[in-house]
Amino acid sequence: MVPLDSVDLAAIWLTLKLATLTTVLLLLIGTPIGWWLARTRSKWKGPIGAVVALPLVLPPSVLGFYLLVAMGPNGFIGQLTQSLGLGTLPFTFAGLVVASVFYSLPFVVQPLQNAFEAIGERPLEVAATLRASPADTFFTVVLPLAKPGFVTAAILGFAHTVGEFGVVLMIGGNIPEQTRVVSVQIYDHVEAMEYAQAHWLAGGMLAFSFVVLLVLYTSRLKQGWRG
Protein backbone atom coordinates (compact mmCIF):
# COMPACT_ATOMS: atom_id res chain seq x y z
CA MET A 1 0.00 0.00 0.00
CA VAL A 2 1.69 3.20 -1.21
CA PRO A 3 0.33 6.44 0.27
CA LEU A 4 0.27 9.60 -1.78
CA ASP A 5 3.28 11.80 -1.13
CA SER A 6 3.39 15.59 -0.91
CA VAL A 7 4.05 15.95 -4.64
CA ASP A 8 0.95 13.90 -5.47
CA LEU A 9 -1.17 15.88 -3.02
CA ALA A 10 0.11 19.15 -4.50
CA ALA A 11 -0.89 17.95 -7.98
CA ILE A 12 -4.36 17.01 -6.73
CA TRP A 13 -4.83 20.38 -5.04
CA LEU A 14 -3.63 22.26 -8.13
CA THR A 15 -5.98 20.23 -10.34
CA LEU A 16 -8.99 20.96 -8.13
CA LYS A 17 -8.06 24.63 -7.99
CA LEU A 18 -7.69 24.79 -11.77
CA ALA A 19 -10.96 22.94 -12.42
CA THR A 20 -12.93 25.08 -9.98
CA LEU A 21 -11.68 28.40 -11.32
CA THR A 22 -12.07 27.26 -14.93
CA THR A 23 -15.64 26.11 -14.31
CA VAL A 24 -16.63 29.44 -12.77
CA LEU A 25 -15.12 31.34 -15.70
CA LEU A 26 -16.72 28.99 -18.22
CA LEU A 27 -20.18 29.52 -16.72
CA LEU A 28 -19.69 33.30 -16.84
CA ILE A 29 -18.41 33.21 -20.42
CA GLY A 30 -20.53 30.34 -21.71
CA THR A 31 -23.90 31.65 -20.51
CA PRO A 32 -24.11 34.66 -22.85
CA ILE A 33 -22.61 32.61 -25.71
CA GLY A 34 -25.10 29.78 -25.18
CA TRP A 35 -28.00 32.23 -24.90
CA TRP A 36 -26.97 34.01 -28.11
CA LEU A 37 -26.57 30.74 -30.02
CA ALA A 38 -29.97 29.55 -28.77
CA ARG A 39 -31.80 32.75 -29.71
CA THR A 40 -30.07 34.31 -32.70
CA ARG A 41 -31.00 33.94 -36.35
CA SER A 42 -27.80 35.61 -37.46
CA LYS A 43 -25.83 34.19 -40.36
CA TRP A 44 -22.89 34.06 -37.96
CA LYS A 45 -24.55 31.42 -35.75
CA GLY A 46 -23.07 28.54 -37.75
CA PRO A 47 -19.47 29.82 -37.91
CA ILE A 48 -19.42 30.90 -34.26
CA GLY A 49 -20.98 27.63 -33.15
CA ALA A 50 -18.33 25.76 -35.14
CA VAL A 51 -15.53 27.78 -33.54
CA VAL A 52 -16.90 27.06 -30.06
CA ALA A 53 -17.11 23.34 -30.87
CA LEU A 54 -13.60 23.08 -32.37
CA PRO A 55 -12.00 21.60 -29.21
CA LEU A 56 -14.35 18.63 -29.58
CA VAL A 57 -12.58 17.50 -32.76
CA LEU A 58 -9.13 19.10 -32.60
CA PRO A 59 -6.31 17.00 -31.15
CA PRO A 60 -5.27 18.56 -27.82
CA SER A 61 -1.70 18.93 -29.10
CA VAL A 62 -2.92 21.06 -32.03
CA LEU A 63 -5.01 23.33 -29.81
CA GLY A 64 -2.20 23.50 -27.27
CA PHE A 65 0.34 24.42 -29.95
CA TYR A 66 -1.69 27.33 -31.32
CA LEU A 67 -2.51 28.57 -27.83
CA LEU A 68 1.20 28.40 -27.01
CA VAL A 69 1.99 30.48 -30.09
CA ALA A 70 -0.80 32.97 -29.37
CA MET A 71 0.23 33.40 -25.72
CA GLY A 72 3.95 33.52 -26.48
CA PRO A 73 5.97 36.75 -26.64
CA ASN A 74 5.18 37.24 -30.35
CA GLY A 75 1.54 36.15 -30.23
CA PHE A 76 -1.37 38.58 -30.05
CA ILE A 77 -2.37 37.41 -26.56
CA GLY A 78 1.25 37.49 -25.41
CA GLN A 79 1.75 41.00 -26.72
CA LEU A 80 -1.44 42.12 -24.97
CA THR A 81 -0.46 40.61 -21.61
CA GLN A 82 3.04 42.08 -21.91
CA SER A 83 1.65 45.53 -22.67
CA LEU A 84 -0.48 45.22 -19.53
CA GLY A 85 2.61 44.35 -17.50
CA LEU A 86 1.51 40.75 -16.92
CA GLY A 87 4.32 39.06 -18.82
CA THR A 88 3.61 35.96 -20.87
CA LEU A 89 1.18 33.23 -19.84
CA PRO A 90 2.85 29.97 -20.95
CA PHE A 91 4.25 27.87 -18.08
CA THR A 92 2.16 29.72 -15.49
CA PHE A 93 -1.02 28.82 -13.63
CA ALA A 94 -2.81 31.72 -15.33
CA GLY A 95 -1.84 30.22 -18.68
CA LEU A 96 -3.34 26.90 -17.62
CA VAL A 97 -6.60 28.64 -16.76
CA VAL A 98 -6.79 30.40 -20.14
CA ALA A 99 -5.99 27.19 -22.01
CA SER A 100 -8.51 25.20 -19.96
CA VAL A 101 -11.24 27.73 -20.70
CA PHE A 102 -10.65 27.36 -24.44
CA TYR A 103 -10.37 23.57 -24.25
CA SER A 104 -13.49 22.97 -22.14
CA LEU A 105 -15.69 25.72 -23.63
CA PRO A 106 -17.95 23.46 -25.76
CA PHE A 107 -18.61 21.18 -22.79
CA VAL A 108 -20.27 24.13 -21.06
CA VAL A 109 -21.75 26.09 -23.97
CA GLN A 110 -23.56 23.18 -25.63
CA PRO A 111 -25.52 22.03 -22.54
CA LEU A 112 -26.47 25.64 -21.85
CA GLN A 113 -27.53 26.21 -25.45
CA ASN A 114 -29.66 23.05 -25.38
CA ALA A 115 -31.26 24.10 -22.09
CA PHE A 116 -32.08 27.57 -23.41
CA GLU A 117 -33.54 26.15 -26.63
CA ALA A 118 -35.70 23.70 -24.65
CA ILE A 119 -37.43 26.57 -22.81
CA GLY A 120 -39.26 27.66 -25.94
CA GLU A 121 -40.97 30.95 -26.68
CA ARG A 122 -44.05 30.67 -24.46
CA PRO A 123 -42.46 31.54 -21.07
CA LEU A 124 -40.69 34.53 -22.64
CA GLU A 125 -43.91 35.76 -24.24
CA VAL A 126 -45.76 35.49 -20.93
CA ALA A 127 -43.02 37.47 -19.18
CA ALA A 128 -43.22 40.12 -21.92
CA THR A 129 -46.99 40.50 -21.45
CA LEU A 130 -46.30 41.16 -17.77
CA ARG A 131 -43.92 43.94 -18.85
CA ALA A 132 -40.84 42.23 -17.50
CA SER A 133 -37.60 43.66 -18.81
CA PRO A 134 -35.23 41.40 -20.75
CA ALA A 135 -32.93 41.26 -17.72
CA ASP A 136 -35.80 40.38 -15.35
CA THR A 137 -37.02 37.72 -17.78
CA PHE A 138 -33.58 36.17 -18.01
CA PHE A 139 -32.90 36.05 -14.27
CA THR A 140 -36.40 35.17 -13.03
CA VAL A 141 -37.68 32.95 -15.86
CA VAL A 142 -34.84 31.65 -18.02
CA LEU A 143 -32.28 30.80 -15.34
CA PRO A 144 -34.65 28.76 -13.13
CA LEU A 145 -35.99 26.84 -16.13
CA ALA A 146 -32.48 26.20 -17.42
CA LYS A 147 -31.13 25.01 -14.05
CA PRO A 148 -30.61 21.37 -15.19
CA GLY A 149 -28.54 22.65 -18.10
CA PHE A 150 -26.36 24.69 -15.75
CA VAL A 151 -25.82 21.67 -13.49
CA THR A 152 -24.82 19.52 -16.47
CA ALA A 153 -22.55 22.26 -17.86
CA ALA A 154 -20.81 22.77 -14.51
CA ILE A 155 -20.22 19.05 -13.98
CA LEU A 156 -18.94 18.46 -17.51
CA GLY A 157 -16.75 21.57 -17.48
CA PHE A 158 -15.20 20.61 -14.13
CA ALA A 159 -14.69 16.95 -15.07
CA HIS A 160 -13.23 17.74 -18.48
CA THR A 161 -10.76 20.18 -16.95
CA VAL A 162 -9.69 17.59 -14.37
CA GLY A 163 -8.97 15.09 -17.14
CA GLU A 164 -6.86 17.38 -19.36
CA PHE A 165 -3.41 16.25 -20.39
CA GLY A 166 -2.20 17.34 -23.82
CA VAL A 167 -3.21 20.98 -23.59
CA VAL A 168 -1.99 21.51 -20.03
CA LEU A 169 1.31 19.83 -20.81
CA MET A 170 1.83 22.04 -23.88
CA ILE A 171 0.92 25.27 -22.08
CA GLY A 172 2.00 24.61 -18.50
CA GLY A 173 4.88 22.22 -18.87
CA ASN A 174 5.65 20.21 -15.76
CA ILE A 175 6.49 22.61 -12.93
CA PRO A 176 5.81 21.16 -9.43
CA GLU A 177 3.17 23.08 -7.41
CA GLN A 178 2.69 25.54 -10.29
CA THR A 179 1.55 23.71 -13.42
CA ARG A 180 1.87 19.98 -12.66
CA VAL A 181 -1.68 18.62 -12.53
CA VAL A 182 -2.81 15.07 -11.76
CA SER A 183 -2.75 13.82 -15.36
CA VAL A 184 0.84 15.00 -15.78
CA GLN A 185 1.79 13.53 -12.41
CA ILE A 186 0.44 10.13 -13.50
CA TYR A 187 2.54 10.37 -16.67
CA ASP A 188 5.62 11.16 -14.58
CA HIS A 189 5.02 8.13 -12.34
CA VAL A 190 4.61 5.82 -15.33
CA GLU A 191 7.72 7.24 -17.01
CA ALA A 192 9.67 6.58 -13.80
CA MET A 193 8.11 3.06 -13.61
CA GLU A 194 6.46 3.97 -10.31
CA TYR A 195 3.36 1.97 -11.10
CA ALA A 196 2.04 1.77 -7.54
CA GLN A 197 1.83 5.57 -7.26
CA ALA A 198 0.38 5.78 -10.76
CA HIS A 199 -2.31 3.26 -9.76
CA TRP A 200 -3.36 5.41 -6.80
CA LEU A 201 -3.80 8.54 -8.91
CA ALA A 202 -5.24 6.77 -11.96
CA GLY A 203 -7.67 4.84 -9.78
CA GLY A 204 -8.80 8.08 -8.21
CA MET A 205 -9.37 9.57 -11.67
CA LEU A 206 -11.32 6.47 -12.70
CA ALA A 207 -13.54 6.65 -9.63
CA PHE A 208 -14.08 10.37 -10.14
CA SER A 209 -15.08 9.87 -13.77
CA PHE A 210 -17.53 7.12 -12.82
CA VAL A 211 -19.16 9.30 -10.16
CA VAL A 212 -19.51 12.19 -12.63
CA LEU A 213 -21.21 9.97 -15.20
CA LEU A 214 -23.42 8.39 -12.54
CA VAL A 215 -24.58 11.80 -11.33
CA LEU A 216 -25.29 12.96 -14.89
CA TYR A 217 -27.25 9.88 -15.90
CA THR A 218 -29.16 9.79 -12.61
CA SER A 219 -30.16 13.43 -12.91
CA ARG A 220 -31.31 12.91 -16.51
CA LEU A 221 -33.41 9.90 -15.52
CA LYS A 222 -35.07 11.93 -12.75
CA GLN A 223 -35.82 14.73 -15.21
CA GLY A 224 -37.34 12.19 -17.58
CA TRP A 225 -39.58 10.78 -14.85
CA ARG A 226 -40.76 14.24 -13.90
CA GLY A 227 -41.54 14.97 -17.53
TrEMBL record:
InterPro entries the record matches: MetI-like, ModB_ABC
Highest taxon of the lineage: Bacteria
Main localization category: membrane
Alphabetized UniProt keyword annotations: Cell inner membrane, Cell membrane, Membrane, Molybdenum, Transmembrane, Transmembrane helix, Transport
Transmembrane segments: 12-38, 50-69, 89-109, 195-217
Pfam families cross-referenced by the UniProt entry: BPD_transp_1
All copies of domain ABC transmembrane type-1, residue ranges: 12-218
Membrane topology listed for this record: Multi-pass membrane protein
Matching CDD domains: TM_PBP2
Subcellular location: Cell inner membrane; Cell membrane
Family to which this protein belongs: Belongs to the binding-protein-dependent transport system permease family. CysTW subfamily.
Function: Part of the binding-protein-dependent transport system for molybdenum; probably responsible for the translocation of the substrate across the membrane.
NCBIfam families in UniProt: modB_ABC
Name listed for the protein in its UniProt record: Molybdenum transport system permease
Species of the source: Geopseudomonas aromaticivorans
Organism phylogeny: Bacteria, Pseudomonadati, Pseudomonadota, Gammaproteobacteria, Pseudomonadales
